[in-house]
Design goal:
Layout (H helix, E strand, L loop, with lengths): L1 H6 L6 H12 L8 H13 L4 H13 L19 H17 L4 H9 L3 H16 L3 H9 L4 H15 L4 H11 L2
Helix pairs in contact: 2-3, 3-4, 3-5, 4-5, 5-6, 5-7, 6-7, 7-8, 7-9, 8-9, 9-10
Length: 179
């Protein structure tokens, strides 16, 4: 509902109330991995109109004891020890991606709160979005990746974002990606 309202241009009334109700419903952790997914979806949409509250929603999840699920997590990123760690990385990475266009510096801060493998995993997505408005910031972020593979992927994303606008810079960045 909130997504549809936001897509229709309603950013201050009904969409905000729908997101506040969803936020309230997610304040109490439940023993179900869908709780993490629902929380991330609310944070994702909320970031479109209120980045500070979206970040707080994600941070509250990180600081509270949340579900203790013992089963093997369904992970997109290798190396996480449990479901909670995986969902934390996913929540922060997706939120950083969502706000990268509107608040690039804040997106970098959110991404920096991810553990190493999650930061590396989401960095190319964030770099791609930041590159169109601040290529230097995107390059700085890409160069901060902890592995050569992640750095190359992030540089490739930046080159892709800049290809139509500045072909020479894009080619230079691609060359660096293979160094």
């Amino acid at each position: 509902l909130a997504r549809t309202l936001l897509d229709m241009g309603d950013s201050n009334t009904l969409a905000r109330r729908a997101l506040e109700k969803a936020q309230t419903a997610l304040e109490v952790p439940c023993d179900d991995e869908r709780w993490y997914y629902a929380r991330s979806m609310v944070a994702w949409e909320l970031a479109r109109i209120d980045v500070d509250t979206a970040v707080r929603l994600v941070q509250v999840e990180i600081e509270t004891p949340g579900p203790s699920v013992e089963k093997k997590p369904n992970l997109n990123v290798p190396g996480a020890r449990d479901l909670k760690e995986a969902e934390r990385g996913r929540l922060l990475g997706n939120l950083a991606h969502q706000i990268a266009l509107s608040e690039p510096l804040r997106a970098v801060q959110v991404l920096d709160a991810c553990s190493g493998e999650y930061r590396n995993y989401y960095c190319p997505r964030v770099c791609y979005r930041i590159a169109s408005s601040d290529p230097e910031q995107a390059l700085k972020l890409a160069n901060s990746c902890s592995t050569r593979l992640a750095r190359g992927h992030a540089l490739g994303a930046i080159a892709d974002a800049l290809a139509d606008r500045d072909r020479e810079q894009s080619l230079d960045i691609l060359r660096r990606a293979f160094d």
